[in-house]
Amino acid sequence: MDDTSSPRVTGILETALYVGDLPRAQKFYVSVFGCELLLETPRLVALSVAGRSVLLLFQRGATEAPLPTAGGVVPGHGGSGVQHVAFSIETQALDEWLERLAVAGVPVESRVRWPRGGESVYVRDPEGHSIELVTPGLWAIY
Predict the structure, then answer these.
(1) Could you tell me if 109 and 52 lie in one domain?
(2) CA distance 46 to 112
(3) Residues 64 and 93 both lie in one domain
(4) Do 116 and 142 share a domain, yes or no?
(5) How far is 26 from 45, CA to CA, in rounded Å?
């Protein structure tokens, strides 16, 4: 396949987490991480992350069957167990984030310094998912 003529993906638009208590998860991501509500239904909550991407919080078990819509059918999907999402943050904002987490009563589970110079802070959301705040320097592209 010739890469110069092939269509390219331009990024990841949505990331999904599956939760047992949708209102509790919504409150956590809005209050702790400043996400903004885009859509709220009994099946899913869609949150804006920094106006650039969407965090989808799905009610666990409510998405396994296909969902007919006026525009077509959304295929069924689901997830179980502990999931992971990482939020990018500015290096100079790390101490402010640590303070914000402390004020919100969210304990830091772990901190990691990466060989490229980035630093990660890991916390758990109310569902037990691993949530990472990471500064530039983790990946060659970040």
Answers:
(1) no
(2) 29
(3) no
(4) yes
(5) 7
Please indicate, yes or no, whether residues 12 and 44 belong to a single structural domain of this protein. Answer: yes
84-88 and 72-74 as β-strands: parallel, antiparallel, unpaired?
Answer: unpaired
pLDDT in tens, 35-82: 999 999 999 999 999 999 999 999 999 999 999 999 999 999 999 999
Query: Is the pTM for the entire model greater than 0.90?
Result: yes
> Which pLDDT band holds residue 2 (cuts at 50, 70, 90)?
low
Residue 36 corresponds to which tokens in the numbers above? 């903004």
- Give per-residue burial for 88-114: e unless 16+ CB within 10 Å, then b: bbeeeebeebeebbeeeebeeeeeeee
End of a domain among 54, 80, 106?
Answer: 80
State the DSSP H helix or E strand holding residue 74, giving kind and residue range, or none if neither: strand 72-74
The C-alpha angle 123, 17, 44, rounded to 5 degrees, equals: 130
Q: What is the CATH number of the domain that holds 139?
A: 3.10.180.10
* Residue ending a domain, choose from 32, 51, 80: 80
Return the pLDDT at 3.
66
pLDDT value at 1 more than 90: no
Domain hosting 37: range is: 1-80
